[in-house]
Amino acid sequence: MEKQTELYRGKAKTVHTTENPDYLILEFRDDTSAFDGERIEQLARKGMVNNRFNHFIMERLAEAGIPTQMEKLLSDTECLVKKLDMIPVECVVRNRAAGSLVRRLGVAEGAELTPPTFELFLKNDALHDPMVNESHAIAFGWANAEQLAEMKRLTFAVNDVLKAMFDDAGMILVDYKLEFGVFKGQVVLGDEFSPDGCRLWDKETLTKLDKDRFRQGLGGVVEAYEEVAQRLGLELPPR
Ligand code: ADP
Ligand code: UDP
Predict the structure, then answer these.
(1) Are residues 62 and 102 in the same domain?
(2) Is the shortest distance between the CB of 177 and ligand 1 below 6 Å?
């Protein structure tokens, strides 16, 4: 399937229409942003790594029975996906405390959260993605109660699959963000799962292997993403 017009240029991906109105092409760029787009840098190979990583993860999730957008990998930086009617609310599950939870509640980074927490954030850069709850989502028409229940169920189902997968590969899945959309009436996992939207720590050393390396200026960002891919058994083209 060929790219037609550019539908939307986001901070890290460009969305293209195709000849089939039910499908889109997601193009992963090297742009890396933090702090709601206030800081943007180009990191070589990041688009390729995240595209291939996302395809790999979505395939594993589909095998586990989770409905995903993924149709197929088209190239190093592009994949074909179902065109979802995106729900503008991000779902975040946390197995350990980090990031905004630590800033908001003053808890220790790394504290184990049992059971894992579930949070909703409105996708709105201008407002810095504020935390919202289910009643806001329903009152403002972002999603209905049934869709919210399904988003929560699927977000925890993803945790069951990925926590074990990363653990087997020597990593802690600290937290992650998912976006869902609706395709022909069904709630489906969209957007991406990559080290740009989750936190992964080495199990032994607690070394950060995710976008916090960029946010905190630690360097070796794409190298860390490639290390994660390699540990999962995903082969990437050589440097
Ligand atoms: P942002 O919008 O946060 O800058 P991206 O650069 O990742 O993010 O842009 C990708 C955009 O495409 C996001 O707005 C996301 O909600 C949307 N999107 C992701 N997957 C799909 C899909 N399967 N169908 C429709 N839109 C999608
Ligand atoms: N996250 C994301 N996009 C966002 C906000 C958060 O991918 O717009 C991810 C982030 O990478 C982390 C998790 O969601 O894995 C929880 O993020 P948090 O609320 O701690 O916010 P942060 O401090 O990372 O901005």
Answers:
(1) no
(2) no
